[in-house]
Amino acid sequence: MALLFLKSVVLPHRIGPKYTPLPIHATDSLSSNEKNQSSPTETVRISPRLISDATIGLSDGLTVPFALTAGLSALGDSHVVIYGGLAELIAGAISMGLGGYLGARGEADAYAAKLAETRELVKGSSSRAQMLIGEAFEGFEIRLEIVDAFAQDLQDNDERTVDFLMKFRWQLAEIDFVASRAYVSGLTISGGYLFGGLVPLLPYLFLESVEQAFVGSLLVMMVALFAFGWIKTALIGERDRWTCGKNGVQMVVLGSVAAGAAMLSVKALSG
């Protein structure tokens, strides 16, 4: 029974009877709550990796340009603040985007190398592959004879063995390392930085007084950080408002600390 369960999880289309829907009258006994839970219209969640990239870009975009414009505002010239902020914003977006692209590209190259290594291992040493399959089930307290039987059945197909080892032994899913992932990561981080950096710069475009623009930039940055923390938490499926609000406050605190440290550094260097 345990062996059949393992096969049904890893090799679902090779064994097991064909799925047959329940009769209509059998579903009448389900409660409304159960029907809602089984509804196909479940909450769509954005990829955690995409949210992570957006967080990196937006958080840096909201804090770094703010700190720069705050330091430049001491000169008392709004034009200097605007031009300096825009220059940093463009350069920072390009730099952050390239960093995200190169990082994701490196991960994809590492995945390809591990995939090639695993294929060579499966073709060259069946005993080593069988041992690695067994190691994937360590901690589940499954009897050794069941794991061995499963490993032998799995090794009838080399590609299935490679796929199993990549997913369950090395914890590497191909979908996380596709070639297009590098472009998406770079564009997400760069776009997040550019959008986030424009937010604290807007008050300097509409207010003549540099002092008022600085206060407005500070308030706008804090509101944007709180909103971003709330939305980011909600996008991963969290519906509790207290948790969303707490993460929003956390973003405000961390962003304010980073911006404050940058401002103090600028003032210390300027004397």
UniProtKB/TrEMBL annotation:
Coarse class of the protein's main subcellular location: membrane
Keywords: Membrane, Transmembrane, Transmembrane helix
UniProt similarity note: Belongs to the CCC1 family.
GO CC annotations, alphabetized: endomembrane system
GO molecular function: manganese ion transmembrane transporter activity
CDD domains: CCC1 (cd02435)
Protein name, UniProt field: Protein CCC1
Protein species of origin: Cryoendolithus antarcticus
Gene Ontology biological process: intracellular manganese ion homeostasis
Annotated TM spans: 182-207, 213-231, 251-270
Membrane topology value: Multi-pass membrane protein
Cellular location(s): Endomembrane system
Domain of life: Eukaryota
